[in-house]
Amino acid sequence: MYYLIAFIRTLVVLIYWILLCIIAFICCLPRLKDKRNMYAIATYVRCLLKPVYGLNTYIEKEVDELPKTAVYISNHQNTLDIVTLAKMIQPNTVTVGKRQLSWIPIFGWMYWAAGNILIEKTSASKSYKTIQQVVDKIVNHQYCVWLFPEGTRSYGRWEIGSFKAGAFLTAIEAGVPIVPIVVSDLNKYRIGKLDNGEVIMKYLKPINTKGMTRAQAKALAAELEELFLTEYRKLNEKVSKKDFADCQDMVKFSFVDNAEWMEKNPAYEFKASKDTANTQSSAVENTELAQDLVEANDLVKDQVNTQTAEQVQDKADS
After folding, report:
1. What is the pLDDT of residue 52?
2. How many Å from the N-terminal Cα to the C-terminal Cα in the chain?
3. Are 185 and 311 in a shared domain?
4. What is the C-alpha separation between 221 and 227, in angstroms, rounded?
5. Domain Phospholipid/glycerol acyltransferase: where (predicted)?
């Protein structure tokens, strides 16, 4: 069953993503590289979470209202980040990715047309130019930017990786707040598992960067890395308790449902009782039959012994 579910899910996801990327690319052409495109695309991506991926997602917030322009940062776990974070993305938000992403057939075309910022990640001088490019989008065009400060996916090798300073330099240079988003563990996901449990995504309080200098970026990165680790562990503990409570509820409701069903179906209860009585009656009959066989066997043995004794006596007399 595991491999059947894995095969069907892979097939459905592949077909859905290919169709989505083609349709999204065509729809983006009239407003090519517009900052509104990613939010519209995310609306269709988030539809996959429960029916296709089998993930129940919950959003928590430490703040009621999010800033209009900001740098969003989140932990980077695996390819499922694209799907889960689609539920969190805000209007006018784009991501920053390697220029090589645009070379991927179908997906890359959509990613480029949607207005995401494509950069070269090579030397330090180019990294500075990249930051300035992103800052320009934020300051002059009111973009929100989504960044992964770890710089690479963890794939369960660590809880929270080392935060690079780039995302924090970008926010400080642009003078906009940083909105941290922590996502609980995604590495327990199994493609062949029908229900993959709960995922909690949490908005933390925005960090004000106004008045900060570039020299403070590394210290801010270290501070938020520690905050992410603490919150990540809390969310995982909460998910574990929730999963355990759900299991208890399933067991409890199964007993309740069975009791209610028996009350609504007394005929079944009568049939079950009748079947039990028949079984007991059959057992009694089988016991009586066995006793009769034992008595018959004893009778035959007595007859054989009597005949043998008579034959021995006849020989002795002769």
Report:
1. 86
2. 83
3. no
4. 10
5. 70-186
pTM of the model: 0.75
Q: How far apart are CA 197 and CA 87, in angstroms?
A: 17
Q: Which two tokens stand for residue 240?
A: 């574990």
Question: Which parts of the chain have pLDDT scores under 50?
Answer: 261, 268-277, 279, 312
Residues 291 and 232 in one domain: no
Pair (76, 61) in one structural domain:
yes
Ordered alpha helix ranges (H), 175-265? 217-264
Judgement on whether residues 164 and 298 belong to the same structural domain of the protein: no
| Residues 88 and 24 occupy one common structural domain | yes
Token pair listed for 107: 């997906």
Pairing of strands 178-183, 93-98: unpaired
Tokens standing for residue 236: 């995982």
Report the number of distinct structural domains present in the chain: 2
pLDDT at 151: 85
User: What SS3 string covers 100-129?
Assistant: HHHHCCCHHHHHHHCCCEEECCCCHHHHHH
Which CATH number belongs to the domain containing residue 227 in this structure? 3.40.1130
Please give the residue range of the domain that contains residue 156. 1-273
Q: Tell me, what amino acid is at 12?
A: V
Distance (Å, rounded) from C-alpha 215 to C-alpha 177?
17
The answer to whether the beta carbons of residues 192 and 3 sit under 8 Å apart is: yes
